[in-house]
Design brief:
By secondary structure, this protein is an alpha/beta fold. It has one domain (about 5-215): Vaccinia Virus protein VP39 (Rossmann fold). The chain has six helices and ten strands, in the order ααβαβαββαββββαββ. The strands form two sheets. A seven-stranded mixed beta sheet has the order 3-2-1-4-5-10-9, sandwiched between helices. The chain has a three-stranded antiparallel beta sheet with strand order 6-7-8. Strand 7 (about 165-170) and strand 8 (about 175-180) form a beta hairpin. The longest helix has 15 residues, at about 25-40. This is Methyltransferase domain-containing protein. It comes from Undibacterium oligocarboniphilum.
């Protein structure tokens, strides 16, 4: 599995990507996570990375002071821009999470990344965090949300590589299958990986999702 495979998979899934959020058993957990994201990002100048279809952008935009949402796929941004947002508050651009521009002074106060960490290989996570700090600015709040591995609900892990990354098999629109990185870190693994690059780590989990907040160094 390479970055292009991941990009292509999500590009062709764009129109159906939000179906996962309609599962009845996940509604209470989603609402709880959305409320926490809103509280954390209230009055913040937010840089959102890998915004996808804008599902989460729409959830918190009214509470934020401003939002600049980015994704590597233009067709994702096309869908995201169709959602209703407060006038003049949300902007969009194409951006590669591995080649983010450095923030201007006071440009952002927070960085939001939804369902990105699980798709990042363990050996690339430190570099990704360093990119977050450059892009949002040291001292910015970092919020990440992602999936828990829930037996009977999550897709099974197909294999584990020598670095400890786990993979799932996903079905594409043409019926073919593709292997996608999907890691499910424990709280201790998150704290160990982030510890030297951030401060004030706080982690919340419900049944289906986790939320991590911290301050970028």
């Amino acid at each position: 599995m390479n970055e292009q495979t991941m990009r292509d998979y999500y590009a062709q899934r764009a129109e159906k990507l939000e179906q996962i959020y309609t599962l009845p058993e996940r509604q209470q957990d989603l609402q709880e996570i959305a409320e926490r994201v809103n509280a954390l990002l209230r009055n913040q100048q937010v840089l959102e990375l890998a915004c996808g279809t804008g599902f989460w952008t729409e959830k918190y935009a009214a509470q934020a002071a401003s939002v600049h949402a980015t994704d590597i796929n233009q067709n994702m941004l096309d869908l995201a821009q169709k959602k209703p947002y407060p006038p003049g508050k949300v902007s969009f651009s194409v951006a590669d999470i591995h080649h983010l521009p450095s923030a201007q002074p006071c440009q952002y106060s927070a960085c939001f990344a939804g369902f990105l960490w699980s798709h990042t290989k363990r050996e690339q996570q430190t570099e990704l965090l360093q990119g977050f700090s450059r892009a949002a600015g040291a001292g910015s709040l970092l919020i990440m949300i992602d999936n828990n591995d829930v037996e009977g609900s999550s897709l099974p892990v197909a294999r584990t590589d020598v670095e400890g990354n786990t993979y799932q098999l996903r079905t594409q629109e043409d019926g073919s299958r593709v292997e996608i990185v999907k890691n499910f870190p424990s709280d201790s693994a998150l704290r160990k990986k982030l510890g030297g690059l951030v401060r004030d780590i706080r982690i919340f989990r419900n049944q289906y999702y986790w939320l991590l907040s911290c301050v970028l160094k």
